[in-house]
Every structure is written in structure tokens, then in C-alpha cells.
Write a structure and sequence with these properties.
By secondary structure, this protein is of the alpha+beta class. It has a domain at about 15-95 and about 115-120: Alpha-Beta Plaits. Helices cover about 20% and strands about 20% of the residues. The protein has helices spanning about 15-20, 35-45, 65-75; strands at about 25-30, 50-55, 60-65, 80, 85, 90.
């Protein structure tokens, strides 16, 4: 089971464990702000068919078609270097109404809430991600 437990999950620990047991969504943390959706699709497409990438911004969510593909992503890609940074890959229960994608108070990673606006390790002040015309974020 993942190191992260969602304190806003609607249900008890057993319900969350069951949701993770069938989840097709993985959380990807420690991303460089320069990583694009295309790079994520290429990397995660090596372990399974990617259904959707939830826009990268220091972290992202990759949704696969099967739980097996999601667990392969964790097994084979956790710790992989992407954009000069080792990424963290973990299961996530996915989106539910009233729950923001993300870790922390505002949907970002918890440690991001305490970070200054300028962070040279994450690309300085940040840049807009190169968006394609693809509106559903599928690869």
C-alpha cells in the first residue's frame, strides 16, 4: 500500500485500501516544472496504455485503463529520473466530486505550501506548460 493516505477520503481506512486496490490512477510527484505532458505520455506509455494525464505542474496524475498497468508504473518507474529529477510514483484513489486532485491543502504537494515563490530546483518562477490542442489530456 502507498506511503500516502488521503485524510479527505470519504470512508474509512478499509474503504481507501479497497479503492487503491482497484485504482487505475497514479500520483507522480517531484516533477520539474519543465516536464511536458508529451514526455509523461512517452514515459508512462512504456508500461501501459495511458488514458489521461492530469496536467503536470510539479506533480500530476496519470490514469491508465487497468489497475495492472498502474501497478507496473509504480514498480518500474518510481525513482526514474525525468527532467533531471527522480520522480515519485504512487497509487491514488483518483478524482471524486468534492475532492481535489493533489496532496495538501490547495491541491499541491504538502511541502509546496511552505516553499517560497521562487524555487531554482523546480525551474525558478515556473513557466507555462506547452499545451497541445488535445483537450481531454489523452496520450
Amino acid at each position: 500500500m502507498p506511503a500516502y493516505w488521503d485524510c479527505r477520503f470519504k470512508g474509512d481506512i478499509k474503504d481507501q485500501e479497497e479503492a487503491l486496490r482497484v485504482s487505475t490512477t497514479v500520483y507522480v510527484g517531484n516533477l520539474s516544472y519543465y516536464v511536458t505532458e508529451d514526455q509523461l505520455c512517452e514515459l508512462f506509455g512504456r508500461v501501459g496504455e495511458v488514458k489521461r494525464v492530469k496536467t503536470p505542474c510539479g506533480f500530476c496524475f496519470v490514469i491508465f485503463y487497468t489497475h495492472f498497468e498502474a501497478t507496473d508504473a509504480i514498480r518500474f518507474l518510481n525513482g526514474t529520473t525525468l527532467g533531471g529529477r527522480p520522480i515519485r510514483v504512487d497509487l491514488d484513489t483518483g478524482f471524486e466530486e468534492g475532492r481535489q486532485y493533489g496532496r495538501g491543502m490547495h491541491g499541491g504537494q504538502v511541502r509546496d505550501e511552505y516553499r517560497d515563490k521562487y524555487d531554482p530546483n523546480r525551474g525558478g518562477f515556473g513557466q507555462m506548460v506547452n499545451m497541445t490542442g488535445n483537450t481531454n489530456n489523452a496520450c
